[in-house]
Amino acid sequence: MAANYLQSLDWRQDPYIVNNIITFYTKGRALDLLAGFYDACAQVEIDEYQNYEKALGALTEAYKCLTKAKMRSPEEQERKLSEMQNKLTLVKRFIQARRSYSVDKQEAIRQCELLLEEPDLESAVRFGDVYAVLVEHYTQQGDFQKAYRCLEEMRSKMPSVNLTFYVSQSTVEAVYRALSIPLTHKPASEHVRHNSVDDSEEVEEAPDIDFDG
């Protein structure tokens, strides 16, 4: 319940909210709850802004809080620490894959493909964001068959999601056109283009939030 409430706050547009929450939980020595807040912040960074770098900062703070928390159940604390460590690892791997694309495209793509094999990937990194890197890459390389295969895998894993939420409409249309496959339903335009392999930066301007307290 608390996590849902925190995610509904417009905290990113008002850093004052963040500072108040951090101060409140810190003074109350409720570090496990503060960890939950940072975890919710990370999820918003990913879902709303596609900013994995800031999400990593928030998750790092969450992990620090959990290590210092005095929870009633040591077992529960260890479980949460393990889950948080796994999230951190997956997010770091995705960030590294995107950053390395300009230096070593093949290795970056290999890392993205390995990420898709991770059973808990969706707990930290969205399938669509990883597939977007692959689709854009194969389209740029002129390998439309592989690009199409990735689009179909995306569709099967996320049947209720519009593909153009992750991949630009022009790219989707280019792939279908190259393979002479009719678009059975025209992709609707999205107001934000996500995760181009040429642009892993944040796509919307928003105030910086300092996750270092």
From TrEMBL:
This protein's GO CC annotations: axoneme; ciliary basal body; intraciliary transport particle A
Compositional bias annotation for Acidic residues: 198-213
Domain IF140 C-terminal TPR: 32-155
Superkingdom field: Eukaryota
UniProt keyword terms in alphabetical order: Cell projection, Cilium, Repeat, WD repeat
Keyword Repeat (UniProt): yes
A Pfam family matched in the record: TPR_IF140_C
GO biological process, one term: intraciliary retrograde transport
Localization terms from the record: Cell projection, Cilium
InterPro entries: PPR_rpt, TPR-like_helical_dom_sf, TPR_IF140_C
Keyword Repeat on entry: yes
Location of the region described as Disordered in the Swiss-Prot/TrEMBL record: 189-213
Name this polypeptide is given: IF140 C-terminal TPR domain-containing protein
UniProt organism field: Aquarana catesbeiana
